[in-house]
Description:
Bound molecules: pyridoxal-5'-phosphate
Distance between the termini: 53 Å
Oligomer: single chain
Structural class: alpha/beta
Amino acid sequence: MSTRPLLNRRLNGMGSTIFAEMSALATATGAINLGQGFPDTDGPAEIAEAAVRAIREGRGNQYPPGPGIPELRTAIAEHQQRFYGLGYDPDGEVLVTAGATEAIAAAMLALLEPGDEVIAFEPFYDSYAACIAMAGATRVPLTLRAPDFRPDLDLLRAKVTPRTRLLLLNSPHNPTGMVLTPDELTAIAELACERDLLVVTDEVYEHLVFDGTHHPIAALPGMRERTVSISSAGKTFSFTGWKVGWVTASRELVAAVRTAKQYLTYVSAGPFQYAIAEALRLPDDYYADFCADLLRKRDLLDTGLRAAGFEVYEPQGTYFITTDITPFGEKDAYAFCRALPERCGVVAIPNSVFYDDPDAGRSQVRFTFCKQDAVLADAVARLERLGG
Length: 388
Ligand SMILES: *Cc1c(COP(=O)(O)O)cnc(C)c1O
């Protein structure tokens, strides 16, 4: 064998995701896993039944159409109209993907040339850095800083160069829980139009906004033709294992993303697509109850973390709470998270790994609250043993 490293330079340093590492630690130690964001209760029984029915009736058991089954594309278009007044043609302006993860990858691979710059908020959702790298492009972080994690829009403007091709947005933002305000969205949209930038926006937590409602940037003037909106059924319907995601965008942008997508997975999740078509049409009560339930859980964990001694940054959306461990006299979130199962039987995620700037998130730790109330209460009781 040659001495050349097997993993290419683009992926160097992206060994394995922190979620895999911390979930393995939870399994090995029997700790309560408030690390990876997956619910410990499945989504609606009637939606699970719809998937079973589709399999039994032979719907989606063979390769579904490349862009997604028509029933789901229609339901996605209806959802965008119903919640945001956005009109998309199910035939050409909607693309079904293997979760939001594939949509992000396909968008980066389709839209970027090597050498292009992508501005994204840091802390980054971890697949962003990898997908930008796989496309041969360069990430340019805009650091969100505690305590409120608002983006500095003057700094954003200053980071745009002639090489900037796109802005990769995420609101509600994982891991900080920051939700972009209508004013911030307007300023970002104006900048995108002025500098002729594409916008790729990850909105998987669109139905978990605790104050007010979600505002898609695609609805703003001049944005429809330059925005790729990405969402997914995983978080909204508590079926993260089904991996049904989607893109809505102009015909030209969808065609570009589809070109990359068709050689990644080709198609995915046949029978689940039928079930998610039904899920998207659930009445408003489903969405309202889902959000109210998670808000209650947020408050439960928020109160508990404060009582345990953490500095808590209350999230405006998502199902994560970012905290700071400085009150415990500790500074290194990664070391803290590695030791936490041993110390008190809880697993969390160090936000420090989502930053390029080594100082910005060094002492931040993220907990998820998409767990049963009893599990959250148990975790809080364990965390109190830290004696903060
Ligand atoms: C969970 C998550 C995803 C991945 O969504 P899938 O549909 O499971 O692929 C993408 N972006 C963010 C911000 C997430 O939290």
